[in-house]
Amino acid sequence: MKGFSARLLIPVISLAILLCAVFYLQPRTMSYLGLNLLFNLAVPIALATIAQMIIMSVNDLDLSIGTFVSFAACVTAAFMPETPLLAIAILLAAIAAYAVLGFVITLQSLPSIVVTLGMSFVWGGLAVLILPSPGGQAPDWLRSIMTVKPPLMPMAIVASIIIALVSHFIIMRTTFGVAIRGAGGNGRSLVRAGWSLLKIKAAAYALAAFFAILSGMALVGLTTAADANIALRYTLLSIAGVILGGGEFVGGRVSPIGAVVGALTLTLAASFLSFLHISPDWQIGAQGAILIVVLGLRLIFNFGKRKGSAS
Amino acid sequence: MTQLSFLTSKPWIWSFAAAMATWVITMLFTGGSSFVGLSQATLTFASFSIIVGLGQMLVITLGPGNIDLSVPSTITLAGTVALKLMDGQSSWLLLGFFAALAIGLAVGLSNYALIKLLRIPPIIATLSMSFIVQSSAIWYNRGLRVKPPKVLADFTTEATFGIPNLALVALALSIFVWWLLEKSVFGRWISAIGQSPFAARMAGIPVDGARLMTYVCCACFASVCGFLLASFSGGAALNMGTEYLLMSIAVVIIGGTAVTGGNSNVPGIWGASLFMFLVVSMLNTYGFGAGVRLILTGLIIITVILAASRPSARAR
Amino acid sequence: MSDHDTVVSVKDVRVQFGAVKALDGVDLEIFAGETIGLVGHNGAGKSTIVNVINGALPPHEGAVSYGAQDSTTKVAKDNGVRCVFQELSLFPNLTIVENARLMHSDLGGWNWRKTAARLMREMLDEIFPNNSIQTQSAVGELSIAERQMVEIAIKFLNVTQAPKLVILDEPTSSLDATLAEQLLAHVRRYVSEGGSVLFISHILGEILSTSSRIVVMKDGKIVSSKPASEFSVQSLVETMGSVVKKSERKSARSAVQGSEQTVLHIPSGKAGGLDFNATRGEIVGLAGLGGHGQTEMLLDLFNKHCSNWVPEKQQNVAFVAGDRSLNGTFPLWSILRNLTVSNVRALARFATIDAAREDIQADEWKKRIEIRTPDIDNPILSLSGGNQQKVLFARALSGEAEIVLMDDPMRGVDIGTKQEVYNILQSEAVSGRTFIWYSTEMDEVCLCNRVYVFRDGAIVAELSGDDVTEDNILAASFSGVAA
Amino acid sequence: DTSSKKIALSNNYAGNSWRQAMLTSWDKVASEAVKSGVVAAGDAFTTAENQATEQAAQIQNMILQGYDAIVVNAASPTALNGAVKEACDAGITVVSFDGIVTEPCAWRIAVDFKEMGRSQVEYLSGRFPDGGNLLEVRGLAGVFVDDEISAGIHAGVEQFPQFKIVGSVHGDWAQDVAQRAVAGVLPSLPEVVGVVTQGGDGYGAAQAFAAANRPTPVIVMGNREDELQWWKEQKDANGYETMSVSIAPGVSTLAFWVAQQVLDGQDVPKDLTVPFLSISQDTLEESLKSTQKGGVANVEYALEDAKAVISGAK
Ligand SMILES: Nc1ncnc2c1ncn2[C@@H]1O[C@H](COP(=O)(O)OP(=O)(O)OP(=O)(O)O)[C@@H](O)[C@H]1O
Ligand SMILES: Nc1ncnc2c1ncn2[C@@H]1O[C@H](COP(=O)(O)OP(=O)(O)OP(=O)(O)O)[C@@H](O)[C@H]1O
Ligand SMILES: [Mg+2]
Ligand SMILES: [Mg+2]
Predict the structure, then answer these.
(1) Pairing between strand C434-438 and C450-455?
(2) C306 vs B contacts (CB less than 8 Å)
(3) Alpha carbon distance B235, B149 (integer Å)
(4) Cα–Cα distance measured from residue B225 to residue B183, given in angstroms and rounded to the nearest whole number
(5) Shortest CB distance from C306 goes to which of B184, B199, B204?
(6) Residue D42 in contact with residue D252, Cβ under 8 Å?
(7) Whole-number Å distance between alpha carbons of A89 and C69
């Protein structure tokens, strides 16, 4: 429990600080509509981050999340409104493909980075085949889910909370989740204890694909259409989100709630910058600087923690 | 049997085999008449990936999580600054070259400062750095193309004894890196660090010093690549490095370097770089559309990796 | 339950790794209600037989069978065989409860967290009374001793099926005396209730006091299997094949005289603590209960004298760690490279490593410290645990370092090898090296010229010469009153 | 009166000389307009990566910042529709140019990219009445502009069937990528009479032909200074003839004035077209003179030009 809350504290604090800064710079954001506009594009990012987190919890890294989300978005926009069955069949096949990837990567002990790098070309190619030029259309039900206006809290916040809770339950509470994290913590022991590493990793990959598909669908719901390059940057964003949320590259140490918070923080950081009015020359550089600052916050906290434990 | 074990013990064989196969298939299209042209073009363009790949390989050897994503923007900034400083004057050639190296040095130092002082994971630290470096390039020259000095432009586009000069440069650098990794003390050190940083430290290796040097090396290789690429293509462009983000990583790992660190190999980079260029040429030659081309590229990469892999004795 | 219920029987098992015959026709039968002590030199094949019994390593020849002859399942786990490995097999990122869940597939059900927490609490309290381990904490946050306790408790857990045979591979190496005694008491209790235990240790006292039968292995063969009462320490050692040169402590110690030249001095950090001093050619021991700041001091010393940034002209300190899987060996490398890594700068000309000189040095040390391997170019992982440890020693001693820091370096080293290493230490000290040696084993501490006793992160006593005795050290570590 | 109105530019990419010229033109015209009190603000924003999602977030932020008009060069014609709709709903004028958006509530200053592609083949048909083989250098796969220009080129080839496209590569609108891609297929291509391009890649193609020691075909240029310079060198040396066509980066200033006109309450049709900027053998010297060294041939628009474009469209 101790580790759990400490892992979460840093991301939550960074988010809170940034949010205050944004409220200060632009008081208009402090409203129902404002919060929704600030955060609604964080919803697909949060889902992609969860997908990446699941892969990272088995000590792998998925360099194809971005193209895969784009692919899922293209499938959704191109087929979902007219031929939903076809769309669902393609997406199910994609999940199966991920499971096979997880299986092969484990069986042959391949480096996941290379395999997913190769797959990123494959998903990209499929997306280009499905939508050679931008277009398609979000199905109405998806559009209305993503633009729903629940009472009290805007959709973006509600959705983030639901994503955080559901993924927390799956990854942190169920036996399946424990086994996934166990595979990352000590794969050899898992095998010794009689589990099938192959099955667990295949299942983890499939689960990740499921979340990534949700991400693509959410994205289409927000943007109303798709293109083959729509989510390329999710690959790096999702990795940054997991790290920001207190996850680690190896060892199965992850936090789903932290990952969602990390995704929100990244989104907010970009908004914060545009409220600052930086010269166009340095706007790109400022994005780097803010990443550094937000991650640097961890250090301050870690200092505090080390002092605390020393005394 | 011995041949078979030779195959499996040398992972770079596979990248060469793949490169050879694509080369032959591409030439089949023209019945062999494109022999000289294709080979020269391949060597020329592979040189750039080889040079950045060598640097990236050193970093990847440092172990899991070590990667340099600032390579593209370093290429851009080094090319931009060097060409603007030289301003087309051959007499300023050395100034431009050293300016490029200085940029590599600065980027490498800053990268490691972020990693070490702020404890930011390398993948994010170098990504953040790349944004800053890219902004510097925009601010410095706003993307205006300055022509390279004539001497330099000629050097980069010409060939000696039928072999492109660029390939010779890449060869020299490769031999240097091979020596570094296989024969030198520094190579031993980074291989040790890649296997276990803590054990390396306890064995008396100056871990931080060696890692810093490695990041600086990587950035310097990128800046040399930027310098040559800008001279070769007639001026620096703001997006000239973009290609080399995925490329630098791909050639390293397709070439058989372990992503888990500690184990690298130089010949593989050549095989993989030639292969990466040839596969695009091959698919272009056969006139595949962009979608199919991407899919085939991905599948071929995975096939090469599968061929080079050995099944684990027991699922890890 | 009769005394002659077979739990496991191993028949004429052979296992070969390349040229090495790790097991060369081993017959072993384990009955219910007995504790078998398994001893042997490093590389004798103990870990290998364990792996054969628990099913991780199918034998190349021979057979393993479990329980009665007609037992239907051939899976070790389903026959109640449990194994505590020496390199712990826990999941550091998971909580204790989650670890228990993964280790016990029968711990399912809707409310498994609650069940697991209750069972673990009970088992921990049963084996290690008065422990303060929380079942909700992540294993990674526990100390090494606590992890060992958790692993042992998990393996003894009875969810739906009681364990029949528990294999303990050096379970006491990271436990202090009290905890070790608690464990041994539990083992006796468990065996008296009909369970059986296979107990591996290089600490012969434990073996003799706990086992009902002792099996001695040598070079992949069982050379002796007799009731414990028929052995003494001396006869055990002789059976294992080590000729213990009766190098008397006293004489050994007097052979080395620290010179007057101080090579290290650390002022005490804490009020009431003593300064630390070491002179040339001295063997300084660090004692006290585990975890009272000895390792920290060694690491501090190391970090102060070995730059992390600039390569030194000459290496002045070397470090030998006992926890080799964590911070010792480089798994991708050969034995040779592992041995020479600290010293490559000295072996290099113009920054290029001279392969010929490297070979010569490695061969010399292979002979000197008797590393058991057919070829020094074999991967380091092909060595048995104890032999890997020897490589680490050779690494530290082959360089020019004047000060050698040792953090409990003899973990898992067999008694014969220990003697060899002691002798090397003595002769190196005579030639002017300084050793600073933290050990959890009293015998080793007593070999030192001078001993500092640690308590709560500070030095509370300094003993030298004839004052270095077990009693004095124990007294100082508990009360802080120097004898 | 628009003196209290604030206009923002949402730009998705700054990584090439065309975009840099676009930003410079915008800055010049917008700061002039702010100084003379025509509008209250004319800020430019650029995203770090060329991504529709990031730009959508950027537009949403602009809504929150209370801009009255947003001028967009969109990363995708459709993927920003959600954000654009939100802006319209918040009463904000949205004007898209170059990379236009399909959301009906926005204004579009479109370039007829199809025609840009077709006109290249038409020009070549004048040069080679007997036709011949063409090499096509495309842009970035999956992007709208690439698809449009390519469609135009293929329409052109249909119209002039004496031409045949024997090779098609993606140059990603980058000199070095184009050079590499062309160099890769060149050895296996038969004789090529012309290279049809999308802008920014002509010089790279020329380099590749030179490196392969093949006769230089007629390469359609894309208005970059280095391309024009090369063309001039060739022209002076051996009378090389070609054409150059691209969209002027200064079209951002046209969009600025259109937004200002909409804010001013003028009746502006939703769809406006700007001609692309094309340079011929005769205008080469002149254009080269007015183009910044290392930059792109440009035209900036004044308020009057914008008014003319608007009234022309009615
Ligand atoms: N995977 C392996 N590959 C090659 N040789 C091996 C392997 N595992 C064990 N051996 C060899 O088998 C022999 C027996 O090893 P084992 O680990 O069983 O010894 P041990 O009795 O446990 O020794 P220690 O007390 O040092 O742990 C050793 O000589 C060792 O080098
Ligand atoms: N990853 C591995 N690959 C191959 N062999 C291994 C690996 N890890 C351990 N071994 C082999 O398994 C055997 C057991 O090694 P380990 O270090 O666990 O010995 P141990 O008996 O537990 O320790 P000790 O030496 O303290 O008795 C050794 O012979 C070693 O060579
Ligand atoms: Mg062993
Ligand atoms: Mg052992």
Answers:
(1) unpaired
(2) 204, 206
(3) 10
(4) 25
(5) B204
(6) no
(7) 52
pLDDT single digits (tens) A254-298: 999 999 999 999 889 888 888 888 887 888 888 889 888 888 877
| Alpha-carbon dihedral D99, D105, D107, D108, rounded to 10 degrees | 40
Asked if A231 lies within 8 A of D23 by C-beta distance, the reply is no
**Ranges of chain B with pLDDT below 70:** 1-9, 309-316
Give, rounded to a whole angstrom, the gap between the first and last alpha carbons of chain A: 21
CA D281 – CA C91 distance, rounded (Å): 74
Other CB atoms closer than 10 Å to residue A150's CB: what's the count?
11
Chain D contact set for B146 (CB, 8 A): 293-294
Q: Domains plus CATH for chain C?
A: 6-240 (3.40.50.300), 249-479 (3.40.50.300)
pLDDT band at C325 (very low <50, low <70, confident <90, very high): low
3-state secondary structure of B12: helix
Q: Are D105 and D91 in contact (CB under 8 A)?
A: no
CA angle (B242 as vertex; B237, B245 as ends), nearest 5: 145
User: ipTM, 2 decimals?
Assistant: 0.84
Strand bridging mode D271-274 / D107-111: parallel
> Which residue owns the Cα nearest ligand 1 atom 1?
C382
Q: How far apart are CA D146 and CA D170, in angstroms?
A: 9
User: How much is the pTM?
Assistant: 0.87
Rounded to whole angstroms, how far apart are CA atoms B49 and B255? 12
Parse chain B into domains and list their residue ranges.
12-309
Name the DSSP class of A159: H
3-state secondary structure of C301: helix
- How many Cβ atoms are within 10 Å of D9's Cβ, its own excluded? 28
Place of tokens 């990583």: B249
Nearest to A125 among B69, B294, B301 (CB): B294
Ligand positioned closest to the Cα atom of C387? 1
With tokens 């250098």, the residue in question is: D137
Residue C180 near residue C172 (C-beta atoms within 8 A): yes
- The amino acid occupying position D286 is E
**One-letter amino acid of A238:** S
Tokens of B245: 């983000």
pLDDT at B316: 26
Which DSSP helix (H) or strand (E) runs through C478? helix C470-479
What lies within 8 Å, CB to CB, of B144 at 6+ separation is D17, D20, D292, D293, D294, D295
Q: Give the pLDDT confidence score for residue A260 in this predicted structure.
A: 96
Distance CA D272, CA D280 (A): 25
CB nearest to B203's CB, from C312, C351, C395: C395
Q: Which of D93, D12, D92, D24 is nearest to D53 (CA)?
A: D12
Mean pLDDT is lowest, of C24-28, C143-147, C375-379, for C143-147
- Paired tokens of A65: 């999340």
Residue C479 is predicted with a pLDDT of 55
Q: How far apart are CA D209 and CA D164, in angstroms?
A: 19
A299–B118 C-beta distance less than 8 A: yes
Decide if C280 contacts C258 (C-beta within 8 A): yes
Task: Burial-class residue B82 by CB neighbours within 10 Å (0-12, 13-18, 19+).
Answer: buried
Contact A283, A273 (CB under 8 A): yes
> Which tokens in the block code for residue B250?
């791909």
Check pocket membership of C325 for ligand 1, CB cut-off 6 A. no
**A78-87 pLDDT per residue, tens:** 999 999 999 9
Any alpha helices (H) in C81-197, and if so which ranges? 96-103, 112-127, 144-156, 177-192
CATH topology of domain B12-309: ABC transporter involved in vitamin B12 uptake, BtuC (1.10.3470)
Closest by CA to C426, choosing from C202, C177, C254, is C254
Q: Token pair for residue D75?
A: 């990363």
Q: Are C455 and C462 in contact (CB under 8 A)?
A: no
- Structural contact between residues A50 and A62, judged by C-beta atoms closer than 8 angstroms: no
